[in-house]
């Protein structure tokens, strides 16, 4: 199966190599590394399914395509081209379908592979890397770093989450600081705690500097 992994790597590098929103090849590779770390601790799940899903999880993302349908068509075309048996394709796609946060939707995961890939992706939205990605994505979307008059949004539709007015700092409260309590696996929960505390420290310093007190 190693040849399938190599083909997936090359495909993702070609598709996302120039991304500047925090969803580039390096994000994908970090998610794979996170998944490997969690899998090594959990000692459950099929590593091939986990690795392929980690590598391909952003290919159908509606943020990175003309539409969600176009993204899934792109993924389907690639999986068909590398001739993976249908059962494995189904399991890989099932993992990918459940990864995205999409405004905090609640979706029941039905495999340890999906749990690990979701945790691995969410860990990359936390800590120092998560902070860097938040401001990269906010800049790409034209969001301000911080706007005190913009209230933090709570209950949102997917459209509101994707298109509504927000700031990069508000995104911490609308998504990032909620992730710690949404981890599936024990090891991911431990890693998330540390990264969560780092973000809280960053926000304390940010507000201190913003208000001329630092």
TrEMBL record:
This is HD domain-containing protein. InterPro entries: HD/PDEase_dom, HD_domain. Gene3D superfamilies: 1.20.58.1910, HD-domain/PDEase-like. It comes from the Bacteria. Residues 20-135 form the HD/PDEase domain.
């Amino acid at each position: 199966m190693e040849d399938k992994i190599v083909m997936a790597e090359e495909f993702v590098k070609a598709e996302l190599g120039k991304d500047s929103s925090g969803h580039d090849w390096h994000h994908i590779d970090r998610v794979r590394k996170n998944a490997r770390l969690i899998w090594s601790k959990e000692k459950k799940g099929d590593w091939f399914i986990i690795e392929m899903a980690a590598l391909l999880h952003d290919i159908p993302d509606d943020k990175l395509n003309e539409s969600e349908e176009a993204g899934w068509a792109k993924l389907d075309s690639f999986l068909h081209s590398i001739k993976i048996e249908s059962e494995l394709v189904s399991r890989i796609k099932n993992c990918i379908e459940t990864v995205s946060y999409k405004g905090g939707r609640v979706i029941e995961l039905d495999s340890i592979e999906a749990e690990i890939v979701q945790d691995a992706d969410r860990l990359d939205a936390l800590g120092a890397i998560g902070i860097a990605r938040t401001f990269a994505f906010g800049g790409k979307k034209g969001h301000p770093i911080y706007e005190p008059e913009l209230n933090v949004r709570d209950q949102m539709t997917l459209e509101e989450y994707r298109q509504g007015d927000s700031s990069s700092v508000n995104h911490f409260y609308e998504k990032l600081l909620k992730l710690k309590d949404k981890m599936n696996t024990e090891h991911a929960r431990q890693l998330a705690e540390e990264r969560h505390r780092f973000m809280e420290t960053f926000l304390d310093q940010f507000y201190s500097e913003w208000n001329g007190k630092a």
